[in-house]
Design a protein that fits this description.
The complex is a heterodimer of chains A (360) and B (576). Chain A is α/β, with parallel strands linked by helices and 360 residues long. Chain A has helices spanning 3-20, 62-80, 87-93, 105-119, 190-198, 201-205, 218-230, 243-255, 264-267, 279-284, 294-306, 308-312, 314-326, 342-353; strands at residues 26-30, 37-39, 46-48, 52-56, 85-86, 128-129, 136-139, 142-146, 153-157, 166-167, 176-178, 183-187, 207-211, 235-238, 273-274, 290-291, 328-329. Chain A folds into two domains: 3-129, Arc Repressor Mutant, subunit A (Orthogonal Bundle); 136-357, Dna Topoisomerase Vi A Subunit, Chain: A, domain 2 (3-Layer(aba) Sandwich), CATH 3.40.1360.10. In chain A, strands 10-7-13-12-14-15 form a six-stranded mixed beta sheet, with helices on both faces. Chain A has a three-stranded antiparallel beta sheet with strand order 9-8-11, with no helix packed on it. In chain A, α2 (62-80) crosses α4. Chain B is an alpha+beta fold and 576 residues long. Classes of the chains: A alpha/beta (360), B alpha+beta (576).
Chain lengths: 360, 576
């Protein structure tokens, strides 16, 4: 028996016992928000504070309660048959539930996150996998995977992907690496990744480049963490100079998120360093900018007030305040102002050398 | 403007010959009698069309009867009979048990316009001007050529006097066609019989509706009504006591206009201005009178007759800058919010009722009271404008709703707060009936036909306040109803989702069908227990009278027609 099935059965047994004792059943799950995480520099990631919310079965909660139990039932089935379902597929499975079906996928995702927290596992263990791919990889790395039919190892050389790239699979736990690279460079946009890949930036600098394409997926975060932990490679992150790049992309990669805090321990990269566009860069490199959007301003305020990671790092507070003061944001492609390959020839080499221009 | 050059030449010519245009015109210029004026402008009195003429005639007669009975402190019992003579001609007979009319006064009261006791008094009563009934007589005479027949008896032991009357429209004087003594098997009372051109129909502006609405707000009255279909409807008296007597009051200084004041000064028997002010007006004490004299720079012992126009103007200014107590309010006899609500309940099946009587207020020196009652929900249609029932001094107002001050107040009250739909400044839409009653010593109608109340800001404000008072109660009811709705919806959730909970538990724990069912029943019981019982919040209406509610409605008309047709067939068959 797999541990996930045991926990599911345990929770449901409790519920049933309460019902027979004529007590109102309830389930407990961690509160999924930044309010419920702490950040300790030594630990290096957002740690769950252990505050829980109780979902008691009442007329108001009966629908979600039913959906939670129904999804646990589906999860049990998946694990038992060793099958998987994407979040989107889970949403469609619910269409068999009659009145209890989900109307939109976000409802389904939210219930899934709740169960994940309730069981303190990650959703892959429950048989649920993300639908999106995990990120693109190129450079001095050989990934050792398994053939799904024969079980024989397959070696994938990431220097031989041509103009394409190796795509991180949704589950990375079984992967092994062979590499002589000196560092990993994680890049926010696919466009910038293309440029670096086309000009073989990784060859000249003996590194691995990974495209995050926005907020990194769990698989991508775990993939980078494994490279960092198992191969002892330093990780540098190159994003836009805006609150989204700083605190949605970089912060999530480095210390995890408040939403799925119970998995942060395995999905964080505490060693990561920020070498993306800083407010100081905007001035030093005279970069073209855009005005901050309303959501950006809101996010800056919210982060300064609530984000434990920001609270722990004066440098980040200063950077955000500087950005707010300028009222500007800057994309990484803005470096093209100084020539298309300025980023390869000047910006990145200079940045990598000059530790003082990094942010923690 | 066109009269330029050509006419100038003509006029010069005329001047030289001694027959100017003005002379010529002077031949045509003569006094217009009130009667002639109203004969031409009958719409001003409510005789615009045959349907309305019938209503106005009955309304004027009934109003007079009720006023007379109440003045004499007698419980009114009124018989109204409408007989259809031919397609366009009707005979109406209205008979009361009132004090009767002194023989010498009968001709003037029924056949002289602007004659009566009410115009010169400030007292809450139905009639005001002394036009109504004589106008009906005139209308009957103009459309049928027949005189009005009046019978009146003032004491049980005396015989009744009988008149056949017409109006000389040129002189506005009564013409007595026939005068006689007659026996009348009645203690006292007055009866009028009129022939007139009219048309009879049902609906909200019908005689049936008028009589019903009158009965609703006059619970001390018995009305016996025989309609043109020879069906008798009796609205029996509900209370055996007279309404509180409305006292006559002197005018309040705040309402007095210059012309009126000058006239009062000229005819007053008072010898000094001081005594004029204290005796001719209400709420003027000797100290207030002194203050007015001081402010108008006139000596208190000035003879009223000697006061000039300028002096009068000064007095008006002085009055307006002096603080004078509001007029006494015992001159007003409101229906009372309980009686109003009771009447509404009889008529309308709703889920919520409320009513209010506002404290007395004053417009132009005239005290008045606004009362409102509201019925909400139930069988009323939710997609139509609300129904408004207006009354002034206990008389239903059935025409010109949109010209009435109450309509204005309704349009400028926000009904959306009370859960109704309303576009900006218009009559709200929703399941509601709203009753507005104005009681006053002088109801300011927009015309002599007494259909709409004039737009005095004080009146509009009071109507709005009365609506808002009721509205607040309604809003809290609507809120409660919404909560109840939500509660029912939540209970629906239990029914809907508990089976899913039970099914999921069964499948995860591999239970039997029986175990699943017991989980389901246990859970349902558990959840429903915690929610408590639902109480009904709808008003129970024991007053509602379905037959009564049908009177005067269009639906009732349809039914009557159906009955008629079957009767006709029967009769036809008999003849064969």
């Amino acid at each position: 028996m797999k541990p996930v099935i045991d926990s599911i059965k345990g929770i449901v047994k409790d519920i049933r016992e309460k019902i027979t004792k004529n007590e109102t059943p309830s389930v407990f799950m961690p509160i999924r928000s930044l309010q419920n995480v702490s950040y300790d520099l030594k630990e290096g990631y957002f740690k769950l504070l252990g505050r829980e919310k109780e979902r008691t079965l009442t007329a108001n909660t009966v629908k979600t309660f039913a959906q939670t139990l129904l999804m646990m039932k589906e999860s049990k089935g998946l694990v038992e048959t060793d099958d998987i379902a994407t979040k989107r597929e889970m949403y469609y499975i619910s269409k068999n539930w009659g009145d209890a079906m989900f109307k939109e996928q976000p409802e389904s995702d939210s219930v899934m996150d709740d169960i994940e927290g309730m069981l303190t596992v990650n959703r892959e263990q429950m048989g649920f996998v993300p639908g999106e791919h995990g990120g693109a990889v190129a450079g001095e790395l050989i990934v050792v995977d398994k053939d799904s039919e024969t079980g024989k190892p397959i070696k994938i050389d990431c220097t031989k992907m041509g103009s394409g790239a190796y795509s991180v699979p949704s589950s990375v736990e079984h992967l092994k690496f062979e590499t002589k690279a000196k560092f990993v460079l994680a890049i926010e946009t696919a466009g910038m990744f293309e440029r670096l890949n086309k000009h073989k930036f990784w060859k000249k600098n003996n590194c691995i480049i990974i495209s995050l394409s926005g907020v990194p997926t769990r698989a991508c975060r775990r993939f980078i963490r494994k490279l960092n932990e198992e191969q002892k490679l330093p990780v540098y992150v190159f994003t836009d100079g805006d609150p989204y790049g700083f605190f949605s992309i970089y912060r999530t990669l480095k210390v995890g998120s408040g939403n799925a805090a119970h998995i942060n321990k395995y999905f964080c990269v505490p060693d990561a360093k920020f070498i993306g566009i800083t407010p100081q860069d905007i001035i030093d490199y005279k970069l073209p900018t855009h005005p901050l959007k309303e959501v950006d301003k809101k996010k800056i305020k919210d982060v300064i007030k609530n984000d434990p990671f920001c609270k722990a790092h004066k440098e980040w507070q200063k950077a955000l305040q500087a950005l707010a003061k300028m009222g500007k944001r800057c994309e990484q492609q803005a470096l093209a102002k100084h020539g298309l390959n300025y980023v390869i020839s000047d910006y990145l080499p200079k940045k990598l050398k000059d530790q003082k221009s990094w942010l923690p | 403007m066109k009269k330029g050059g050509d006419n100038m030449a003509q006029m010069k010519l005329a001047e030289s010959t001694g027959t100017t245009k003005a002379h010529e015109m002077a031949k045509k210029q003569r006094e217009i009698s009130v009667a002639e004026f109203f004969a031409k402008n009958r719409h001003l009195l409510g005789f615009d069309n045959p349907k309305k003429a019938l209503l106005t005639t009955i309304k004027e007669a009934v109003d007079n009867s009720l006023d007379a009975c109440e003045d004499a402190n007698m419980l009114p019992e009124i018989c109204v009979e409408v007989i259809q003579m031919n397609e366009k001609r009707f005979k109406v007979i209205i008979e009361d048990n009132g004090p009767g009319i002194v023989k010498s006064q009968v001709p003037k009261i029924f056949a002289k316009l602007l004659y009566g006791s009410k115009f010169h008094t400030l007292k809450q009563q139905r009639g005001q001007q002394g036009i109504g009934i004589s106008a009906s007589v005139m209308y009957g005479q103009l459309t049928t050529g027949k005189p009005a027949k009046i019978t009146s008896k003032i004491a049980p032991e005396k015989p009744a006097s009988y008149f056949e009357l017409q109006i000389d429209t040129q002189t506005n004087k009564p013409e007595i066609i026939k005068e006689a003594q007659t026996e009348w098997n009645k203690k006292t009372g007055t009866k009028i019989e009129l022939d007139l051109e009219a048309s009879y129909s049902k609906g909200s502006q019908s005689i049936d509706a008028y009589l019903k609405q009158t009965a609703i707000v006059n619970p001390h009255v018995t009305i016996i009504y025989t309609n043109p279909k020879a069906e008798q409807i009796i609205f029996p008296r509900a209370i055996d006591s007279m309404p509180k007597e409305a006292k006559e009051i002197k005018p309040h200084p705040y309402g007095v206009e210059l012309g009126v004041l000058m006239k009062m000064l000229a005819v007053s028997p008072a010898r000094t201005l001081q005594s004029f002010l204290t005796t001719e007006f209400t709420r003027v004490s000797s100290s207030v009178a002194k203050e007015i004299c001081e402010k108008s720079k006139l000596l208190p012992n000035t003879k009223p007759r000697k006061i000039s126009r300028d002096g009068s103007e000064k007095i008006i200014d002085a009055i307006n800058s002096t603080k004078i107590m509001n007029p006494p309010t015992d001159c007003i006899s409101p229906i009372g919010f309980e009686a109003l609500e009771k009447g509404l309940k009889k008529e309308i099946k709703a889920e919520f009722y409320c009513s209010t009587t506002r404290p007395p207020s004053v417009y132009r020196g005239n005290p008045f009271v606004i009362e409102a009652a509201m019925a909400y929900g139930g069988d009323m249609p939710g997609d139509k404008s609300i129904r408004i029932m207006r009354y002034a001094n206990r008389v239903p107002l059935q025409y010109q709703q949109s010209a009435c001050a109450s309509a204005n107040a309704i349009m400028h009250t926000n009904f959306r707060n009370y859960g109704l739909q309303q576009s900006r400044n218009s009559i709200p839409v929703g399941p509601m009936t709203l009753v507005i009653h104005m009681a006053s010593v002088w109801v300011p109608f927009t015309s002599e036909s007494k259909e709409a109340i004039a737009h005095y800001p004080e009146i509009i404000k009071e109507v709005k306040l009365a609506i808002q008072e009721c509205g607040r109660l309604l809003a809290s009811y609507v809120m409660k109803k919404k909560r109840l709705h939500k509660e029912l919806k939540k209970r629906g959730y239990i029914e809907k989702y508990i089976p899913h909970v039970a099914k999921a538990i069964k499948e995860i724990l591999a239970l039997t069908k029986e175990e699943e069912e017991s989980i389901e029943t246990d859970l349902k019981k558990m959840l429903e227990q915690t929610r408590g019982k639902i109480k009904s919040i709808e008003a129970e209406n024991v007053e509602y009278d379905e037959e009564f509610a049908k009177i005067g409605s269009k639906n009732a008309e349809l039914e009557l027609h159906e009955v008629d047709e079957s009767n006709d067939e029967k009769e036809g068959g008999d003849e064969k």
